[in-house]
Amino acid sequence: MKDMKQFLMLTAFFALSQIVMAQDFEVPKKYKLKKNEDFAKYEKDVIDCVNWLENTPINEEPEKRKDAYAFLMAWMTGSPSVTIELNESILGSIDNNKELVLIFMGGWTKYAIENPIDQKDQIKCTLAGLKSVIKVYKMGNGIKKDKNVEKIVKLDDNGELEEWVKNQLKK
């Protein structure tokens, strides 16, 4: 019982620290993304950016969100280490909320940076992107209701999301 209590307290502390760190995120200014080293230098900022995007309601801080998206897109489109594979049937399930497509790509990118061994695993990266989408969708606050995303949330709640992803990627 004592071990479980310690585990729960550590989990709560970690979750809270992630939220606090995300709130302190500042979009890098005058970043340069030309050489491979430039991208590596900003990996922590990319992770912080994705955390901030996941933990900040879409209808809050619109200017900062716009800057965060621009930074994230610049990093993702030029990164020599992270390649996002966009699957038409999966994107079709989230593209009614255009913001969720960027959240998906951010979740994929964050996972790939944090898990370099798995960064070429399309299933794991897709799941990470969808988990980010689910997190933001459940938060609400500026997200319009979407039956396709609701289906993804339900699949995740039922432990069926990974199997669904595998089937979508086969198409």
Description:
It is a single chain. The chain is mainly α and 171 residues long. The chain has helices at 2-23, 36-41, 43-55, 62-78, 88-91, 98-114, 122-139, 147-157, 161-170. It has one domain. It is built from 9 helices and no strands. Helix 3 crosses helix 4 (62-78) and helix 6 (98-114) packs across helix 7 (122-139). It starts with a helix and ends with a helix.
What is the number of strand segments? 0
Which parts are unreliable, with pLDDT below 50 for 5 consecutive residues or more?
7-22
Element pattern in H and E: HHHHHHHHH
Q: What overall form do the CA principal axes indicate?
A: globular
Give the structural class: mainly alpha
Whole-number radius of gyration? 16 Å
Specify the oligomeric state.
single chain
Approximate helicity band: 55-70%
Q: What is the mean predicted local confidence, pLDDT?
A: 87
Tally of domains: 1
Beta-strand portion reads under 5%
Biggest β-sheet description: none
Distance between the termini: 46 Å
The number of helical runs is 9
